[in-house]
Design brief:
Length: about 170
Amino acid sequence: MDRAQKQELVDNLKRVFSETQVVVVTQNSGLTVAQVTELRRQMRAAGASFKVAKNRLVSLALEGTPYASLKPFFKGPTGIAYANDPVAAAKVAVEFAKKNEKFVVIGGAMGETVLNAEGVKALATLPSLDELRGKIIGLLNAPATKVAGVVQAPAGQLARVLNAYATKG
């Protein structure tokens, strides 16, 4: 990698760190290319991304961003997972770590709030943004369905009474 490519990578990472909602730092010693590819595929499916970069370049990119306090996490073979959904990256990283012992979640951050490994695991247990939206829509639709049923019930009863009188007489 020449100097221009390194500068471009640092600029891209700096843009990611300034725009993203959550960053999860992982240690991935001994993962095969197939395993990393599978992890990236799972991240993309959840709306997140995973990147492996040199620690020095990541440290340069962290300067001046809300995630600058993550610098101590970047020792050894590390990777970063990030997403705009505060739960997506953490959820995929924690699930992948459960299945693969060579992949370890070591920490992360939401904005300026630094999370240890347990904090990231707790974040992963929360429902995602899409799940919350679905629950809210379900709660909003339930009363409307009940109101429609109650409004239709008297008309149905009146129609049955009139039908009974018509068939009787």
